[in-house]
Amino acid sequence: MIAQVAVDASTHRILNYLVPASLQGKAEAGFRVRVPLRSRLVLGTIIEISSEAEHFEGLRPIHEIIGSTPMIRPTLLALAQWVAEYYCAPLETILRCMLPSSLRGAEMTSRERRFLMLARSIEGEEIAHLQKVAPRQAQLLTTLLKAKKGKVAFQEVGLRGISELARGLERRGLVSIVKERVHRDPFAGEVFLPNDAPPLSGDQQRVLEVIIGSIRAPDRSPPLLLHGVTGSGKTEIYLGAICETLRLGRTAMVLVPEISLTPQTVERFKSRFASIQEEVIVIHSHLSEGERFDAWHKIHSGGARIVIGARSAIFVPLENLGLIVVDEEHENSYKQEEAPRYHARDLAVLRGSKEKCAVLLGSATPSLESYFNARKGKYRLLELRTRADDRSMPIIRILDLRRLKHHGGGNIILSPSLCVAIQERLARQEQVILFLNRRGFSTALVCAVCGHVCQCPDCSLSLTYHRVNARLVCHLCGHTAKIPERCPGCKDPTIRYSGIGTQKIEEISRQLFPNARIARMDADSMTRKNAHREVLGLFKSGQIDLLIGTQMIAKGLHFPNVTLVGVINADLGLHLPDFRAGERTFQLLTQVAGRAGRGEMQGEVFVQTFTPFSPAIQFARHHDYEGFFEQEIQFRECFGHPPFSRLMLLTIRAAHRERAEFSAQTLARKLKKVLPTSVIFGQPAPAPLEKVKGQFRFHLSLRVKSISKLVRLIRPVLEKMSFPEGVRLAIDVDPYQLL
Ligand code: ADP
Ligand code: ZN
Is pLDDT at 32 greater than 70 in this prediction? Predict the structure, then answer.
């Protein structure tokens, strides 16, 4: 027999090994193994066992198999192989997602504790006898007899030489020594009070019934897309669906975007399922290696019934799946931006069909792709058109910044009507959120006289103005520079005051509303581990009146006392060279607006913009998702953008511009030779962000009807191709990052 092994250390090759007689029947796909590679022994994973091979001579045998069960089960192995194929990525990179590094060592690093347990009931005389022959053993035994549940951890006893004493007692047949793995639970010690489901509204009930039908008979139901306006009670429906899944004896997985994986979200799930709290596992990027290890083992050993996690949780070894929920399915953070560049929502649909479980995608602003799938009947559409409890949708007002600009000269940051509205809320002790989409170039230092923009010398990106230490920072590579005294272009001194960032908004707000309690929440102010949790806690309990923030505060948060949301500049992000720019702006405005008026009081949203008539802004204003979809899908069809085609983006980068460009052109030539004319080629062109971290980047985009056909044709070419030194290629299938 031959085993194909993906070796941890060698990303690009699968190697063949002989299965020695001693391991026949034991070695199966998914087992971790130690195999010889040159003069070393290395770790790897068996991908396949077969009796055929081109040649048996010279094959070396597997050294040993690790553990008594496969670490990666067949269903997941099949998923990994599919992902590797579709995303044109080495299999090993996907196995890395399934088996994080802390789980790859041969030795178990879980914390094990040894316990002493009574082996049988013990008479008083026996103890008396023991006291004479082995007084210290007797002492240990008496401690054990006093312990609760007849069991005590070695650590707790605090006797010197306890291991030796315990073994002595064990030899006498009085006690047994057991080892138990201690689960490192980041939520240990937190108490989640049970929280019962509210009675569902008629609409919610109808939606839930369809979902339950799908959970019961997943093979007869396509994936479900739940389009429900913000605050319509989607989460309540997920909870109901999970409840039903558990009742059927199956497990559930919930994916949420990393930034929505807040304490609030976790609490909602943990509280609803308080009675099985320990079987609700949360996986996020801040887990320590130990916590990740333990969470994985708990899931692998069948100790988890609900897993909540961000993108990478799609790969956890949860068995007996009955339901996969993808909340905020439109979120771009489901797409991994490094190899393997998979999309967790798409994998959820795939995993669901492979494991025969229901898949529920939910969003207030479904991605064009998903809604299109629902229109075509590939998904089934479910809708919630009103907010839970009939609360009304917030009123959205558009403030045209063009008119305001000319009066005082320079840019207006908070328009007078927004200031008045804030004043009113503060006076009524209601809360306000000010939102700045900072992924745009707003925080650039732009000279108002000559238009000069301060740029990073290593990346073709404007530098971001940071007020705290008065520096310019490149958000791609971290390059910092001093703020120029005068514009490098025209020597005008006012350039120093032109950046608008959250810090500047905070400063202005403090001047305008001196009595308000103000906090800022963005990537810079949230570097401390619990800062996020603390600020949200203070805001929730009403100790902050005005919260200023970026994307971080746009999603999923629920604060009943927020009655006003101000969007500082809706245009940021609208003019990026990306066919999804309009969609993203629409989504963001709708989501931000959804933060207002979640309580008894009517919510209001002020959107400041220089382009008040752009469709993304107008449709968001009227809460008109379908209107937006209709017009956007026409635009996509007209230009052949996804979902009317599939994209593959090849990025070639090198420290020398010519080298990158040359390699891109060579690659394009070679591909053109093998690809049919139905593949639409872009010319190799400098990426919109041409230079990142000192590397010049060239794009080659391919548009096709079917990705798998393209991959089959392209892979052999890419594998044979050798690039000059220092030139790298990244392959992105269904790309989201087009800059
Ligand atoms: P979404 O996930 O769509 O934004 P949520 O599930 O968070 O909506 O619901 C919004 C608010 O309405 C929450 O406070 C939730 O507890 C409440 N809610 C949802 N469904 C009901 C219901 N049937 N009865 C009462 N309150 C509800
Ligand atoms: Zn840079």
Answer: yes
